[in-house]
User: Fold these one by one.
Assistant:
Number 1:
Amino acid sequence: MCLANAVGKLNRQGMEFCNQGKFHEGLTLLRQALQVCQEGEFKTYEVKILNNIGLVLQMQSEFSQAAVFFEEALDKSMGLKKCGTYLADKIRKNKETALRQAA
């Protein structure tokens, strides 16, 4: 299995766990996917995984920590043509929501 497929599978499984309320298991898989992204230079996937980790933290009411992941995702999305403005806008809105919830 190529690394990109492995990352996609870890991401999907991680989010499925989180949607079932199994946050620890989900975050473990998402962090594994993030590590593979960083080692393999999969920048676009890395941005998506960082956003997903932020979403999971937000689901757990860890709003300040979620905002940190959204900020990192935004920073890394700058200059990546594959991310496009849609993803950046979505991450920006996620970050704004998390910051409002943290206040």
Number 2:
Amino acid sequence: MREKILQVKTFGSFSMIYDGKSLFGRKVGETQFASMMQMLIHERKKGVSRDRLEQELFGEREVENVHHALQSVIYNAKKRLEKAGLPDVNYIEIRNGVVYWNDEIKVQEDATEFDQIYNRIKHEKNPDKKIKDLEKIFEIYTGEFLVKRQSVIWVAIEARRYEDMFREYVEEAARLYREKQNYTQLEHLGVYASNIEPFSDWEALTMEAMVALGRYEEATDLYADTAERYFEERGLKPSKRLLDSMNQLGNQVMHSYDVLDNIQHNLEEKGVPQRAYLCSYPTFRGIYHHLVRMLERSGQSIYLMLCTIVDSKGRPMKEGAMLEAVFEIDAFFDRLGYPFPGTESHYFIKHEKTQRIKMARKLSDEEMLKNNGEKGTFIIRVEQRQHSSWQGRVTWVEEGKTENFRSALELLKMIDGALGGMDIKEDAEEENQERAG
């Protein structure tokens, strides 16, 4: 008789299936049951402290008796698990202030399997066995860890850990495929990694494979499409890695007689040019130099206009505490050496090179969970530092919303915009109080 196992999927999308049936039906909601099961299953070996679980489930809400409320959630979970067909046992146990999942119910969690294979690969010496295990990891990792719950601190921390492991082993798999000259698999790896983790330059692997396989036009088209998408969606210029792939392509391909037509076609803007022309600072300098030369010959003048960005109350952003925080955090990134800056910072006064430091945990997950802002809490994930700025994602914890940002300025505007409604409300209350006085 086949053993029944509770199958839990945390990568890409969340699901719990027992004996072929989903515990959530067609739709997985962000319920207390789901939140509790995610934490207990993922940390089932060491358990979860009762205080931490209560904080996860009830947060800052006013609950008369939080211990009783937790017992109620556990009781309802038991009824739900029984209804799903699980054996009638005490699924969730509390021992010495720690909450555990009962190991009588066998669990197969994709994240746990990922960790096990990751540790096995680290000690594997046989390249063929290592490749098989790497390919198993890529089958398991179908997206970010609990992607819809990354506004929760412990989830965000684990998601980042799995991302780092994923990147490490994509590079390792690419190295092994190169050694075996298996460029077809290298191409598949590049396509897979680009879909799983967009805007991370994995297209360079696909380009490398295409060049090695002699598919130069496809590689050229991929570079053009990638460069355009990176700029339009994230404001990113092609990275050194992508440029190196393009240089490799240029060194190997023989240009045909119609290359000038192709260059002309690629230079032209798609559609009818509209609105102001947005470009990077180096491009702007080039345009400015060109215009100065043209206008000198015609005797015309050229002027620059400086616009100052202000917040929702009309205050210049440079006077705000948020901008000072950006400077402090950017200096921390320099000391940490991550994310690596795409350009070297320029100063009027010479700066000494920053000494690198090692990362060390200062707060536990429980302590971080308690540090919510008075007006709002934002989890900022800086993934790249190009154009002397930041690119990444920001999550507004209270609203559970996540957006991409293409620069530190855009990030500040997003945070200011999120809090702007509160500022307006406060201003109205102050005005009403003044009138009443």
Number 3:
Amino acid sequence: MTVIAFVGAGSVEFTRGLLTDLSTWDHEMAMTWRLHDIDPERLAVAEGVARRLVAERGLRAVVEVHPERDSALAGAEAVVVTVMIGGLSATRADLEIPLTHGLRQTIGDTLGVGGIFRGLRSAGFYSGLAEDCLRLCPEAWILNYTNPMAINIGFLHAIAPELRVLGLCHSVHWTMQTLSELIDVPLADTSFTAAGVNHQAWVLDWRRDGQDLYPILDARIDADPELRRRVRIDMYRRLGRFPTESSEHSAEYVPWYLHHDEEVSRFRLRPAEYVGISEDNVAEYQRTAAAVRDGTPIAFETDAVEYAPQVIHALGTGAAHDVYATVPNRGLVDNLPNEAAVEVPVRVDADGSHPRSVGLLPPACAALNRRFLDVVENTVAAAVCGDPRLVRRAALLDPNTAATLPPDRIDEVLTELSRAHRDTLPPALASHDYTTRDTHPRS
């Protein structure tokens, strides 16, 4: 019996997709699905969805509900993490407070001041989770979906390097699906390698039957001026490798787009877009909750493309799966910092995970990744040490923030965000006034 703990199961739509994918292998492996969330209402909805799935498909999976995290984790072999610390109100603050200062972000969950504070307010959760896993399921695989991925994986590695952790994201898969559709080639007929950092990895090689598919993509782009109005198409044409995250995400990781009105218009960017996306997610949850309550149909579409179910299938059956995951850089990407959180190809099987070395990234791609990782490194250190000076330095190094605001204005944004998130930040960082000067700047 493979025991899987879902921490943050109240992220119901995500949980539904993961469970639906897992149901594909129900005949091959006996599973116990332990659902845990701190929100009783959301936990009840997640339970309703899981039990409906089991009943409709005649699954043998056992569904358990655990309001307390300890009982969910005890003896688990996999821990799937899909939490959101602070909820919709925190997302609003991350995007809307900087916007009042002229600092545009689109998503704000990975880099930028939004990503920095999202990572900082998650630190307490991950500290507790790491302690509990070491105590209750030290051999379990922690499969993290929560953003900011590089910051969260870097933090876990810093505080509990002995834990088995994979950061999982579907951006590589869906990027390759999109590219294949653009050139009208079935994804299953292609082979590819991508690497970099999560949300800013690069498609290094892409082929069908040995043929390089990039020239076909080039012709497709040349023939369609509307395609050239996408940020990541523009980045690809300038850098020579396609980035693995959406244009909305990609725009806020570099200094080239959001600071300029004409670029915002040309690339059809929508500052603070993620507030609306988050509101839509809440509405979808409410529709699912109503379906559970009223007994009306719930859609269970099995794609079997999410990586966590594939990892769990490998653990439970010994079957090998090739996924993409965020792991510490130990000889995997030669021109990114050692031990940094990098996204690379990983084979998972009965013996665990086996990240694959990709060698050197193209110089310009590596340069952007290093700037990205500078922000990550300072944010992780700030979370570990509780040092607000490191928060300031992370923001100063962020490409979009630095391109938009002078240092003193950045300090004002940080001060407002630290007050807005005071209840979820590490105590040393809560309500900190960043407009004051460092007493010991060389520390």
Number 4:
Amino acid sequence: MYHSHWQDNCVPRKNNQKEVMKGKRMHRSIGVGYSMPSNLLRFNKFTLIELLIVIAIIAILAALLLPALNRARGKAQSASCISNLKDSMMHMLLYADEHNGHMPVMYHPYASTINYTWVDALIEGGIFKDPPPKSIMCPATPTQETPTRRARSTAFNYLECYGAFTVTTLLDKVEVKVVGEPNCRFYHLPSIKKPSEFMFFSDSYQSATKTQWGAVYPTSTSTYLPHAKHVNNINTVYAAGAAKSLTSQDWTQGYFKMRQEFDDYAGASLRVYYYDSRLLPQSILCRR
């Protein structure tokens, strides 16, 4: 029987039919026009040992990366804190410019038994609005995210802010008492001989409230101490407006030098107290 070329190409032979059927048994379709051997579709399960190895590798990588991430976060917070200190000092200098060089430290305008801070004075002086900006606090401080006013009767009371130096003997040398406000404590900017070396605000901590506090008084009996919270550095701004991140030793030496400049401390040594980054009280002995 005659078969045309067209018929030979279109009608498969028996052998070809067997190969096609064999292919159908050996292959499973995975899409239109595609097939994959069935033995490749059999996925092997993870064994317990392999799973534990993967978990161990992830744990090792996390242990290596987390300290670096924490250090980077700490540096970012320290830089933000430095910026906040500069901003606070800039507003303080604006207040001084409008009040004959007076810069409030402790503010008692209504009653001697109530403590107010420099923030309250700047609010009443029209420099800050109420509530004040977040820049009055360190971003790493264990306190509220926004400035919070405490209970009050006749005045503001923002106590959780950067600490201003309130050493009584130091204030006696550069303080100017304002007539009509006998309980106020002010530094007089023109009386400060070296504003670039006069530490005005620092990171602070109050042990009783466990918050940042508006005063710094680095003595053995004080609970208002500077706080070395930034990798054991104390961020500080000077009366001239420059801010630095100081080691506890450098901060103590600067404080000692500042006191000696005003003859507030005639001795040859001075022990300065501060809180470290773990909130534990520490002290450093400074000598001439």
